[in-house]
Amino acid sequence: MDNEKVYRMDFAKVYHLLVNKAEKKGRTRQEVDEVIRWLTGYGQEELDGMLEKQISYGDFFRDAPKPNENRKMIKGVVCGVRVETIEEPLMREIRYLDKLVDELAKGKAMDKILRK
């Protein structure tokens, strides 16, 4: 899929897909929110606000207030691509979130997901 197409996707739509993926595996929306807050630095109120307004997935990451420094510790494969080798910075941020939600859905402990 073309990167620009991904960047233009509606954040709220992608968010609901991520929550559904986690909930199908017995995890919760609150856990998905915790992962997103950890990765981006958004507070819960800010995150809830993003779901109310029309914001693109790309802008959600571009405007992230405080990306977590430990996000660079996220390694592994998402959609057949190693996240740590993705050269496009914005796509790497998006894939970090994909990887964290994958780990959540696979039952990994939250401390490990949040690289504590």
Structure description:
The chain has helices spanning 3-8, 11-24, 29-40, 44-52, 57-62, 89-105, 110-113; strands at residues 77-78, 81-82. With 116 residues, it is mostly helical. The protein has a two-stranded antiparallel sheet with strand order 1-2. Strand 1 and strand 2 (81-82) form a beta hairpin. The protein is globular, with a radius of gyration of 13 Å.
Decide which structural class fits the backbone: mainly alpha
Radius of gyration of CA atoms, rounded to a whole number: 13 Å
N-to-C series of helices and strands: HHHHHEEHH
* SS field, number of helical segments: 7
Layout of helices and strands, plus pairs?
Layout: H1 3-8, H2 11-24, H3 29-40, H4 44-52, H5 57-62, E1 77-78, E2 81-82, H6 89-105, H7 110-113
Antiparallel strand pairs: 1-2
